[in-house]
Design brief:
With 317 residues, the protein is α+β, with helices and mostly antiparallel strands. Helices cover 51% and strands 17% of the residues. The protein has 13 helices and eleven strands. The longest helix has 29 residues. The chain is globular, with a radius of gyration of 21 Å. This is IpaB/EvcA family protein.
């Protein structure tokens, strides 16, 4: 098999990542070649001192490698991250929720990632066709009856609208014929998603929270169980210097949740941001003297608490 080499644009993205990452970041290639594109055709693995990105499917190696590198670059440049610190006690349910939460988070991040890929000439008509093929491989055509693929269709089509932006009128016709109901819902979500530009980590966080909430609203309209990502998924905070100096009680409310701490399996308490009601950190109080524990937590500054929890945060410019 001929050796794959990154093109100059993707190589320069890899160089950028290597300047910011604390250890070496390498890209390697698998041998699968499906003949269509999906965003699950690469994976990241941490090494003791660095990171390996494996492009598992080499249908479009530069597209897929650059996509992963841009996601990584955004995190290294201080965009919000998600964490999964709580559990419902049912590994299968937890896994499903984590996958869908990550999909929603990635869709929001793709508003920046895909724009950058287009700017660098990494998406052309051929890539658009391969991506469309990937959609039709992922989801089946809608029938008159409701089925258990509705959530997956909505996620897939919303991501597609972000990917094509204003470049895909014919594609939108094709998708609307095959998936009319899901497409109608996806378009409504997409219109909300692009209302405000994403020009900072703070704007990205706001977009992610809004998407979590509006996706649940759509599931509820369809009579499907909501994902509750505003409670289940911890999203890193974007705070001003002034907010970091405020007391915890001024910024957050701490609630006893129905979930357990993923590490300790004790009852989890979730710190919700007072403004947007998003899970911003998770606590497990001691069995004894928990009243004093909470009094102490609420009296700390936000920065003291986040440092104590080793919870990453972003300082708003």
């Amino acid at each position: 098999m001929e050796k794959i080499k990154l093109n100059d644009t993707t190589q320069s993205l890899l160089n950028q990542v290597n300047q910011l990452y604390p250890g070496p970041v390498l890209v390697r290639f698998g041998e699968a070649k499906a003949g269509y594109l999906r965003h699950d055709q690469a994976k990241q693995e941490a090494l003791p001192d660095g990171l390996i990105i494996t492009v598992t499917d080499v249908t479009a190696p530069d597209y897929t490698a650059s996509h992963e590198l841009l996601h990584l670059l955004m995190l290294l440049q201080g965009f919000p991250q998600i964490f999964f610190n709580v559990s419902f006690g049912d590994p299968k349910l937890d896994e499903q929720l984590m996958v869908m939460s990550t999909d929603l988070y990635d869709i929001a991040m793709h508003l920046v990632v895909v724009t950058e890929q287009r700017k660098h000439g990494l998406i052309d008509e051929q890539i658009e066709q391969l991506y469309l093929k990937g959609i039709d491989e992922t989801i089946s055509v809608e029938s008159d009856k409701d089925d258990d693929e509705r959530t997956l269709r909505l996620l897939t089509l919303l991501d597609a609208l972000v990917f094509y932006g204003e470049h895909g009128e014919q594609v939108v016709d094709h998708l609307t014929k095959r998936y009319p109901k899901a497409m109608q819902a996806a378009r409504q979500l997409y219109q909300q998603l692009i209302l405000k530009p994403i020009d900072s980590p703070f704007a990205m966080r706001r977009t992610i929270v809004k998407l979590f909430q509006q996706f649940d609203e759509q599931l509820s309209v369809w009579g499907l169980p909501e994902l509750h990502n505003t409670e289940f998924t911890t999203l890193s905070s974007v705070l001003s210097e002034r907010q970091l100096r405020l007391e915890v009680r001024q910024m957050f409310e701490i609630f006893h949740s129905d979930m357990d701490d993923r590490e300790t399996h004790d009852k989890a308490y979730v710190g919700l941001n007072r403004n947007d009601r998003q899970n911003s950190f998770v606590l497990t109080p001691p069995q004894k003297d928990s009243a004093n524990f909470f009094k102490d937590i609420y009296g700390k500054t936000v920065q003291e608490l986040f440092d104590q929890l080793k919870m990453p945060y972003i300082v708003r410019k």
